[in-house]
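The protein record passed on for reference:
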Amino acid sequence: MKIRILLADDASFIRDLIKRTIRQFLPQSEITEASDGRKAQAILSRQQIDLVISDWEMPGLTGEELLLWVRGDDRLAKLPFIMVSSLGDKTHIMRAVQSGVSDYLGKPFTPEELMQKVSKALVKSGKLRHRPEIGGKTGPFSSLEIFSGKPDPISSTSADTLTAPGRSKTPARAAGTGVVHWQDQEFRCMIKGVNLDEIVMVCKRGQRQPGVFDPVTVTLSANNTATQAIAGLGGYVHGVAALEKKLDSEFMVLTLRFPDLDSQQHEALSQFILDQS
């Protein structure tokens, strides 16, 4: 039986990561994407959907507003709705519950956590008879647990290389996104780890990829909305690796270093790291 899932998130690379996980465990799924809440609303108005997975923070119409609209429509009122958000404090969770959310998933999360929520919602709604086997390291992110911030067993970047002088060897947990500007291309990435010397990011491949020692400029945005974005960090590519152990891996791991930060950038990056710790 085909399972129709609507995935709403304004970050395309996050949609790609979630989509690949769901298809790995639920190959019978048919996934429709929306880049904002308004587009998700339009899709729900004209298509039959079995499950909504929505980010909270989206332009035009937020995930919370989309949820309230869904619950206010008699045709959609009982539709399973999973809210995904970096806003994991009790206030936001309670707001989501009061708005009628089926489940809540805080960022960062592992593929296993995502699929536990998805399968639970689908079993409860009768679209699945049994939950799929999701234990162990069988998902497409098993080689690099992007959302969890855990160490990457296949990356050439060790904990020691993520150490700034006088600081802990463990980088700040993945807690934000970034844009890497290289030549005429932009790579939208998820932050894997960050300290004052180095940032490790996971990005979707482009038609061309930067190489080692290529100069880049980076903009960082935290999941914590109280933390200001940092723009114009100039650095270079220290390492490039495929996310998966195959030639056609869709994602790459970029290790970037910033040897020439000015005092203002250094202070801003220090605050960014402190906020994510």
About this structure: The two ends are 44 Å apart (CA to CA). Residues 136-173 have pLDDT under 50 and may be disordered. The first helix runs from residue 12 to 25. Helices lie at 12-25, 37-46, 63-71, 90-99, 111-125, 263-276.
